[in-house]
Amino acid sequence: MIGILLFHLTIPGLVLFLEKRFKFIAAIGSVLICYALGMILNPISYFQGHSEVSKSLSQVMVIIAVPLMLFPLDLRGWLKDARTTVLSFCLTTSCVVISTLTIPYFFFSDQLGCWQWAGMLTGVYTGGTPNMSAISLALNADHGLFLSLNSADMLMSTIYIIFMLSIGPKLIALFLPNYDKGNSKSDGLAVEINGCRKSWRDGFIALILALLICLIAYYVNLAFFEKLSVPFYFLLITALAIFASSRKKIRALKNSYFLGEYLLLVFCLSIGTLVDFSSVMQMAPSIFKFTAFVFLLAVSLFFTMAYVFKIDRDTAIITNVAGIFGPALVAPVAKALNNPQLIPSGLSAGLVGYAVGNYLGLFVAYLLRHSLS
Q1: Which terminus of the chain has a smaller tally of CB atoms within 10 A, N or C?
Q2: For the whole model, what pTM was predicted?
Q3: Which of 170, 69, 172, 166 is nearest to 127 (CA)?
Q4: Residue 190 above 70 pLDDT?
């Protein structure tokens, strides 16, 4: 047991270390590497014999990662100082919800479990992989289903980010107005998600606070229910983390987001070792089709709404990227747009996505479950 724990806790740290030093590893992405490595190791009897350890570890990691990744969020400052960004981000999340409610109802109503698909995709396209991970646990989704959806999302998202880093901005500029840098109010809204890797004291404090939030949420959950209600538990953790982030001292903890990112990679590696690749491929075709329909409708609907509301090109792109990918790709896209002024509010939008994604994903899932039954 100690050996399997050390493996799961060591490899993600090594991947993060190598990602910062080798461009080809960064291009592949640490999340994909950990998933793939876990799946490669799945047939080995040692990992199959410790599947319960891997399953428990994956569940614990994603629970603790949620508050750690939300601590840097300055929600009040974002709502006050970045109104156009707020409007644009509300539009992109609304279009995701419309898409995930429409596609399964009209085209996939005969697919058992499509309500879970819709809930998980709502989470990932309003905040990123942490939301999909949390929602999959809350909905008690199969590990193979999670990996299939995540693989389909990676395919669509990779095509999309290549588009946005190349010809996308020029095409979108044909129908959206230019960004007015002179009227920007987002410069003073600072969000630091990388932190100082050497600030171990801040990282330790952030971890203790995250564990405390998880414990409080657990006992509050037991006070309302006879046993653990996973959906309620995750929503409560999210709410407590947002409340904690309202304190400036908590937002200033340097290593919070980095620790959350690391725990998310532990989750990816752990869940990868639980998945039989052959079973994933058998269920993949309909899931890939479902994901493509949802993605294309959500993105096309959003840019149509951006045109109607006269959102400028750069703000529309940065908020859409923040919703689909979370904060991680905000800076590269802002660099491609030659507009660093939007980085702070874009990062904040990504963190807000982490906060609302769990709520929206579970709302969509249970609404569809009720209406399709």
Answers
A1: C
A2: 0.69
A3: 69
A4: no
Structure tokens, 236: 């409560």
Distances in Å between the alpha carbon of 18 and those of 34, 88, 226?
Answer: 12, 35, 45
Q: Are 266 and 127 in contact (CB under 8 A)?
A: no
By the 8 A CB rule, do 69 and 257 touch? yes
Secondary structure, 3-state, 192-228: CCCCCCCCHHHHHHHHHHHHHHHHHHHHHHHHHCCCC
Query: pLDDT digit string (tens) for 131-174?
Result: 887 888 888 877 777 777 877 887 787 788 778 877 888 898 89
Instruction: With cut-offs at 50, 70 and 90, classify the pLDDT of residue 188.
Output: very low
Long-range contacts (CB closer than 8 Å, 24 or more residues apart) made by 79-84: 81/185, 81/186, 81/188, 81/189, 81/345, 82/185, 82/186, 82/189, 82/345, 82/348, 82/349, 83/185, 84/311, 84/312, 84/315
Q: What is the DSSP letter of 178?
A: P
Q: How far apart are CA 152 and CA 175, in angstroms?
A: 29
What would you report as the CA-atom Rg of the chain, rounded to the nearest whole angstrom? 20
C-alpha triplet 267, 89, 72: angle, nearest 5° = 50
| Mutual angle of helices 256-272 and 2-19, in 10-degree steps | 120
Q: How does pLDDT run across 269-300, given as a tens digit for each residue?
A: 877 777 655 555 555 678 888 888 999 999 99
Amino acid in position 296? L
Contact partners, residue 56, CB within 8 Å, separation at least 6: none
CA pair distance 91, 119, nearest whole angstrom: 18
> Which has more confidence, 26 or 366?
366
Q: Give the C-alpha separation, 76 to 368, whole Å.
A: 32
- Cα-flanking dihedrals φ and ψ of residue 169, to 5°? -55, -40
Distance between CA atoms of 116 and 364, rounded to whole angstroms?
Answer: 9
Tokens of 92: 């992109």
